[in-house]
Amino acid sequence: MGNDDEMTDEEKRRDQLTSAPDATEEDAKPRIVVSERDGVKRIDIAEDAPVRPGDPTSEPGL
């Protein structure tokens, strides 16, 4: 990629998320969905996000 001044914010985000060792394009996939309706901004976890929030005190898969 070019220097940081020539990159869009999205390109900078993808570059940062894929620069780690063993990183893949999947690592840069958006995990949230932002929508706005009637002046109210809503942030949701994407339906296909590989990791979703839940009860931190319970075991995964229970």
Shape: flat
Determine the N-to-C terminus distance: 44 Å
What are the low-pLDDT stretches, counting only 5+ consecutive residues below 50? none
Q: What composes the largest sheet?
A: 2 strands, antiparallel
Mean pLDDT: 81
Structural class: alpha+beta
* SSE ordering: HEE
Number of strands: 2
Strand order of the largest sheet: 1-2
- Strand coverage percent: 15-25%
Helical percent range?
A: 10-25%
* Radius of gyration, CA atoms, in whole angstroms: 16 Å
Number of helices: 1
Biased composition (Basic and acidic residues): 26-45
Protein name: Multidrug transporter
Organism: Microbacterium paludicola
Region (Disordered): 1-62
Question: Keyphrases for this structure?
Answer:
about 60 residues, about 20% strand, 1 helix, alpha+beta, single chain, two-stranded antiparallel sheet
Task: Walk me through the topology.
Layout: H1 9-18, E1 32-37, E2 40-45
Antiparallel strand pairs: 1-2
Biased composition (Basic and acidic residues): 26-45
Organism: Microbacterium paludicola
Protein name: Multidrug transporter
Could you characterize the architecture of this molecule?
This is Multidrug transporter. Residues 1-62 are annotated as: Disordered. It is a single chain. This protein has a domain at 24-51. 16% of the residues lie in helices and 19% in strands. The chain contains one helix and two strands; from the N terminus they run αββ. It has a two-stranded antiparallel sheet with strand order 1-2. Strand 1 and strand 2 form a beta hairpin. The longest helix is centred in the first third of the chain and has 10 residues, at 9-18. The protein is flat.
